[in-house]
Structure prediction request, 171 residues.
Amino acid sequence: AADKLLPGIYREDAKTSCRHKKLLLDLFRKRCKEFDQPKYLPESNELRWLFFARHHGLFTPLLDWTTNPLVALYFAVSNLDGGLTDASVCVWALHVPREKFRRAEEVLNPWREDEWFMIDPPPVTDRIARQSSKFTFHPPSDPSPLEENLDERDRLLKIVLHQPEDLGSGG
Prediction:
């Protein structure tokens, strides 16, 4: 589990710079054009391309969320490879007021946004629909962790399922 709620494109542990990751996104988009263009992925909608890229494992300024607690638990433990590690395992819960939600059609150029927002994505992949996906978009103008950008109307809860010091305690 991540210590900070920060999209992969801004994480320091990643081996490439944010600028280079943006170039990778552009290359991904260019390579996708070699195939038939899906109707749900119009050329002009940058956010839909970001959703599509995120669900294919690319670093984006999107942070994945779900409204389904079982999906959240699955992703919290899916990288354990058969056992607990020395890392914490947790699920984050976020309540976002309605005015912080945006529609994909309203955001013409997400790279020019200056505040984070929550978005209920259109189903550009089957997994987005099955996983009850939501995303927070984190603008390049403020690549800081989400927990540092909340206001009094936002509520964030970290539910710890496993702490490293629990290892070997027998229960």
About this structure: The longest strand covers residues 155-162. The two ends are 21 Å apart (CA to CA). The mean pLDDT is 80. The helical segments are 18-32, 46-54, 69-77, 126-130.
